[in-house]
Sequence to fold (261 residues):
Amino acid sequence: MGNRFDGKVVLITGAGSGLGQASALQLAKEGAKLSLVDVNAASLEETKSKVSEVAPNAEVLLITANVADEKAVENYVNETVEKFGRIDSFFNNAGIEGKQNLTEDFGIDEFQKVVSINLNGVFYGMKYVLKVMKEQGSGSIVNTASVGGIRGVGNQSGYAASKHGVVGLTRNSGIEYGQYGININAIAPGAIMTPMVEGSLKQMDPYDWEEVGKQFVEPNPMKRFGKPEEVGYLVAFLLSDQSSFINAAVIPIDGGQSYKY
Fold:
């Protein structure tokens, strides 16, 4: 496959764990210069350490920021451009699940927190990165939606609403910016075994969450959880020049569960 990202600058939010970390490792292997953003500084250091193991010569910039803070988002974009001069690809990934509850019992503050990170944070990221890419005349963006953004998810009103918003924002922006040489897509992961999914299972049953997990994936045609690195392969493809004519698409990566009646 070669080094598709030699000389390319890739910005990743939520890079401290899960899908962001897995994608950072894959992109580093393929030669990318990385600007890694996360609210947790210690997690970022962990990702950088893992990157150095798979790509010892990779250039890595770490930025601690809360994506729900518009000014912090503007700053992480500016810091990336100051360091590397451009942004070729953007994995707009940071997000949370939030607490589980029926809609009528879902706390207003909790709903706003989930939406501020999952939807507002994605919008802020696109708002400032698109300005850079439009000036360059090129770029690729992958937003993290979810199967919860294309179908319902019980007891997760905030999460489902925010991810449906990401889907709409992706499709709309892809239509707007294709003319500027920028393609914008979203991934819709299903049950991928990340710290966030583990936390979700523990909300369901803190004492036997692994058994809950087995039951959770039973309806999946592939009868298993996905792996973060499997998502990383997809993200790398969508951010590469090989996907330049894929635009405004939302691509499930869920073992086929979205299509099972």
